[in-house]
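Below sits the subject:
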Amino acid sequence: MANTMTHRSVEVAVIGGGAAGIAAARKLAAHQVDCLIVEARSRLGGRAFTVENPSGFALDMGCGWLHSADCNPWVAIATAQGRTFSKATPPWGRATMTQIMPLEQQRAFRAALGELFERVSAAAATGHDRPIAELVPANGRWTGMLNAVMTYIAGAELDRMSTIDLDRYEDTELNWRLVDGYGAMIAASAEGIPTAFDCPVTCIDHRDRRIKIETAKGTIEADRVIVTLPTSIIGAHEELFLPALPQKTEAALGLPLGLDDKLFIALDKADEFEPESRVFGRTDRAATGNYHFRPFGRPMIECYFAGRWAHELESGGDRAFFDFAVAELTALFGADFARRLKPLQLHKWGADPFARGSYSYAIPGAADQRAVLAAPVDDRLFFAGEACSRHDFSTAHGAFITGSEAADCVLAQRRKS
């Protein structure tokens, strides 16, 4: 599709070409609705982003796991595209690297994590929201690692997270991956849908009968608009809507994006490590890396850095991630291990101007803001995205479901017209 804007008047404009926007546009297109995806980037997929580098492998720099695969709508789409799934048990679902973290310690931590989720459920049942950090001892044996794992799950530490919101998350615990990339599959699913690339939106003017969308390439007019922008963008730009929508701004601020960054490292002589195994750099603090060895059996390490520590690493530039990973890995495997490592690919989501983070969490007291964010405005402005999902937030399938639901609302309004 060309990068020049070919549509300046459409029935429905979909702002954002990530998982939610693509899902919405697919449904509208299937009902022969004249729609246009308006995308700030020069690619589709949003926070679903697969790259290929000289390693020859497809690397998911954003979402990589099809969580709740037995009810994840992307599975059917990937199957229709002829994609190859990996259904191997994820590294967090079994004991690995027992030479580094003995089996009894892994069992003890898993028990501590299970107890935390039980406390979260009990606390949420009271109806009184509070930071999850209040449910764990400040200096407990596993408190640092619980914080680390929660940053990998939600992008934020326990002191920033709503108890009620986390308790609402639903997961069937069946997790698959795509050999050629989740992001590549999501982007490919928009084939044939008109898209205006390199079109960041600066204002959505909904004062008149037709909505005017101001972009870097001019104005688009539409009867209805589906907004799928990240909360980090909505919350930071009160001027995005004219007239302003203070409830949306407030909701977005209560649902900030946590941060999870990935670094892929090539690993020489990888065969000594079991495929799909993992190890933590440290087990006593949140500021540590999660190292997934030989994903898909490949000769590499998929490294995760999250939460406040990822923000700190981003401030140090690309090299800071690799240097930190090498320091932690050599502390585990010896100084000579450094010679076996070479950086392959990194994406800093906090510095990404169209994301400013990875996926949403609710701050204490803001769990119900997901519904506020998702609510239509005047039956002309509709909202979708993972942050709008009550039970599937932070996932690409949560984004898909909300995008599809927003499209259903548009279709219902068309029938009334």
User: Anything to note?
Assistant: The chain has twelve helices and 19 strands.
